[in-house]
């Protein structure tokens, strides 16, 4: 999952973002149902995932039935990419169960038909068209680093933000921030990535003000932070750090500065991606040809 985006905006190529993936995982376990056309998603309030699965089977195997169990502990509507994690983990697990060859590009296009989607499902860091899924450009793996995540505890509906405020900041600032982030990833330079993400965060204040940003910037300056990161269509924000000790110092200062109403955590930067594995306890069913075997998918890279 994510702490918002390093950069989000619109340029001559259309809407784009570069997500800031962190070490939080969303997962899905999928079983093929013996009821054709039946889709059940648990918890049963995850309607967006059910919509995405409906699109998948309508295009790939219309008479298929699926049951999907989601596990995701991050709050919805704050910028962690919780809905994206649910949708893409469900799609990846279901595609494997159905024998559908679903690429990262295919996942992106399906997910964006349901709602604006972050790019954490793709390996490493990517430039992704979060509105239509028409652009997916690999940048590379992120450098080592940490994010002090500040969560004020309230939610926004991503689709409403996009409808009312548009998909991101304008062309000139968006391009400048994107090129800094691109160069920073290529050089594995967290400071350069942080310059781009700080520029994008400040530019987004005119679109969707985040009241935490000014105080977080001061904390970063006092504790050797590498820059700011913000959820451009959510409520969380963060400070980038190159080492965990500096991030811990930043958290201590933030605790005193921001008060008890803001939840704080230190998360590690990760590359994005999806892993799909057959559950070990179902291997006997697979060996006997049981079609009800479960598949598990999680969103996030746990190799770093």
Describe the fold and architecture:
Helix 1 packs parallel to helix 2. With 304 residues, the protein is of the alpha+beta class. It has helices at residues 47-60, 82-98, 104-112, 158-165, 171-187, 190-204, 213-222, 244-258, 283-287; strands at residues 2-11, 14-21, 26-33, 39-42, 65-71, 125-128, 136-140, 146-151, 227-230, 237-241, 263-268, 274-278, 295-299. It has 2 domains: 26-73 and 82-114 and 273-299, no CATH class; 141-268, GHMP kinase, C-terminal domain (Alpha-Beta Plaits, 2-Layer Sandwich). It is globular and about 60 Å long. The protein has a 5-stranded mixed beta sheet. Helices cover 36% and strands 25% of the residues. The protein starts with a strand and ends in a 5-residue tail after the last strand. The model is unreliable at 280-293 (pLDDT under 50).
Write the layout of secondary structure elements.
Layout: E1 2-11, E2 14-21, E3 26-33, E4 39-42, H1 47-60, E5 65-71, H2 82-98, H3 104-112, E6 125-128, E7 136-140, E8 146-151, H4 158-165, H5 171-187, H6 190-204, H7 213-222, E9 227-230, E10 237-241, H8 244-258, E11 263-268, E12 274-278, H9 283-287, E13 295-299
Parallel strand pairs: 4-5
Antiparallel strand pairs: 1-2, 3-5, 3-13, 6-7, 8-10, 8-11, 9-10, 12-13
Helix pairs in contact: 1-2, 5-6, 7-8
